[in-house]
Amino acid sequence: PTIKPVDSYIQKAQKFYATGNVDSIMHYYQAAQSVAKKHHLDKELSDAYYEEAKLYTRMNNIDSSIVIFTKAANVARASQYWIGLNKALGQLASIYPLSGKNTEALQCSKEAIEAGRKAKYIRGIAIAHLQAGNALQYLARNEESLQNYQEASKYFDSCGYKSGTASCWINMAGVYYTIENFDLALEYNRKAITLHKELGNISEVANAMQNIAAIYSGYNRQNTITKYYHRDSVYFYYKEANKIYEQLKDSFNL
Asked: What is the reported pLDDT for 27?
């Protein structure tokens, strides 16, 4: 009976999202935390912290997000609430790079992988591997980054989360582009385009097309011409990407 008020407060908070009334949303999340603390409901307390931290992320208040997600993770860790720990650490791994904290992001993603395994939460393991790959890419540890993207892709495949698989492929293409393995960069961008088209993720299709256009522009990181220079292909892929950005009214990418 003590759990219901916690859930009801969280549900009330979420209903206020439509109104944009941040004070009311925050009031109900904190009310949920108060009840959870009073009755020593660690799982519910971790969840309430997690939801509050997500609100701060939406508000682009990264410092507060980090503080509250860390609280969620600490409560989950202490109570061996592994799925909660995986999710809280996953969020931390995704926002630490916004503050240039890539080493911290990598540490969080590694612990998130272990928590996901303990919870047998396949999608959470996949997301944590994806985030580890991102952190390693930022740290220029390209081979390790690729290994984590490949692991993430396997887990996403096993739980049928195709959007995650496509994200892995685009990120792998980015690493291959960095290390100038342009054949594999093209292959993974094309695979990502096919899958994102199937899923209807047209903005991601356009992004991958821009990546392919960059390869066919024929310049490597030393700004010298490569054998991949093909002007007609550059024009084709930018033109196709532009059509999508016009459709989406995405003036920045356009």
From this structure: 85
